[in-house]
Amino acid sequence: MHEYVDRFPDSLSGVADDLDSEFDRLLVESSTLSFRVAYGVLRHREDAEDVAQEAFIRAHRHFRRLRNREAFRAWLVRVTWRLAIDRQRANRRRADRDDRHARTLPWATTGDMAIANERATHLWRAIDALPEKLRLAIVLSGIEGHDIREIASLLQLPEGTVKSRLFHARQRMKESLRWLMEPRG
Amino acid sequence: MAHGTKGMTDSELDSVMRHAINVELPTNFVDSTRRRIVQEQARSVVGRWLVPSAALVAVAISALVLTPSHRISTIEPVAKVTHSASGTDILLMPTLPTLVTQPDTTAARPDRERRRGVPALRAPTVASEPEDMVMVSPVDAAAYRRLYASVASTRYELVIDETNVAPAEKTVTDIEIMPIAIPPLDPAEEQGVLQ
Q1: What CA–CA distance (Å, rounded) separates B172 from B36?
Q2: First and final CA of chain B: distance in angstroms?
Q3: E strands, B23-171, where?
Q4: Which pLDDT value is given to residue B181?
Q5: How far apart are CA B104 and CA B193, in angstroms?
Q6: Inter-chain contact B3–A106, Cβ cutoff 8 Å?
Q7: What spatial distance separates the first Cα and last Cα of chain A, rounded to whole Å?
Q8: Among A4-18, B6-20, B38-52, which is the least confidently predicted range?
Q9: What are the beta bridge partners of residue B135?
Q10: Are A31 and B49 inside 8 Å of each other by CB?
Q11: What is the Cα–Cα distance from A35 to A77, expressed in whole angstroms?
Q12: What is this structure's pTM?
C-alpha cells in the first residue's frame, strides 16, 4: 500500500491543510462583510453573529467550488442575506428586539438619545420598506463605503444595474426620511 | 439636493446608513466561527474529497481520533467501506455495480460481446490482511482503470453516525487521506486483459 502511496505523493495528502488555510484567510478577510450584511437585516448583534457564522459554516462545506476570492465573497453575501431574511421572518419577537436595539444604538449619545432613537427607527423602517433587490444594494453601499464596482462584484450584476438600484433605493429612502432634515418645531 | 428630492442629499443619506450599519465585528467572531466549523465537522462529516484521477482506485482514511463507537453511516454516491482490525483505519473502495456483479467472464461470455469489444471484468480481489490492503492484480488493473475513469471526478462524502457516541468522543482532530493507486500497465499487458 505504501509503495503505491509513494508513487503519488501529491495526490491528496495536504489538500485538507491547504483548503483550511485558504478558507481561514477568507474567513478573516470577509467576517466583517458577512456580519454587517446580517446586521443590516437583523439589527441585533447576537443574531447577526449567529447568522454570519452559519453562512461561514455553509461556505466551508462548499469551499472546493468557492476558492476564487470574488466568487467566495459574492456567495457569502447571498447566503448571509438569505439566512438573515429567514431568521428575521422566523423571529416572532422582532418588534421587542427593535425596541431594545433602539435604546442601544452606537451613534446615539445621552443628549440626543430620543432623537437618535427616532431617526434609527425610521431609517430601518425605510430600509425594510424597500423591495429586496433595492434593499440589498443599499445595505451593501452602506457597508464600508462599497462603491458601485464592488457592489456589482458582490452581487455579480452589471454596474449599470447596481447604479439603477441604488438610485431608486436612495430616492425612496430620501422620500421616507425627508422629515429628518426638516426643521423641528 | 440630489435628484430633486427635498430634505436629504445622497451623501447625507449615505452617512446615516454608514452610522447605522457599520457596527464593529464582535471581537471573538473569527475564533468563535472556527470553533463552530470544527464542531460542525466533528458532529457529522468526517471528510470530503474528490477522487482525483482515473488511476486512483481506493482511498484509505486514517481518522486518528475516530473511535470504534463511531461508524461510517453513509458514503455517497457509491462506495464500500471496510474497517480494519484496529477500528481506526477505514478502507474506502469506490465500487460500481458492474464491478461488483460482473465476474470474470472472459472465457464464457458470448461471442457478440467479444465482437463489440465489451471489456471483460473481474471482481476486485480484496485481501483480508491486517492493513486491509486492496490487492489488485495486473490482470485486473486495466479494467479497473477504465471503470474508475467514470468516477474520476466524483465527490465522496463520509458522514459519521453519532448514535451511541459519547460527547467526549465527538472530536475528530485529524484525518489523513492516502491514495492507493494502480501502477500503470504496459500496453501489451493491458491489451491482454481486454482480449
Answers
A1: 13
A2: 84
A3: 45-50, 56-63, 71-76, 79-83, 89-94, 125-126, 134-135, 155-161
A4: 42
A5: 11
A6: no
A7: 85
A8: A4-18
A9: B125
A10: no
A11: 10
A12: 0.52
Q: What is the pLDDT of residues B86-99, one digit of tens each?
A: 333 333 444 332 22
Q: Does B135 touch chain A (CB under 8 A)?
A: no
Could you tell me the pLDDT band of residue B40, with boundaries at 50, 70 and 90?
Answer: low
Residues in chain A: 185
SS3 state of residue B1: coil
The SS3 of residue B119 is coil
Percent of chain B with pLDDT over 90: 3
At B94 the three-state DSSP class reads: strand
Q: Could you give the CA distance from residue A75 to residue A71 in angstroms, rounded to a whole number? A: 6
For residue A134, pLDDT beyond 70: yes
* B103 C-beta neighbours (distance < 10 Å), count: 12
**Higher model confidence: residue A79 or residue B83?**
A79
Query: Between chains, do A31 and B30 touch, taking CB under 8 Å as contact?
Result: yes
Q: Which has more confidence, B20 or A42?
A: A42
Query: What are the φ/ψ torsions at residue B51 (nearest 5 degrees)?
Result: -75, 115
What Rg value do the Cα atoms of chain B yield, rounded? 27
Contacts of B22 in chain A (CB under 8 A): 36, 142-144
Q: How far apart are CA B148 and CA A12, in angstroms?
A: 17
Q: Does B4 touch chain A (CB under 8 A)?
A: no
pLDDT at B15: 80
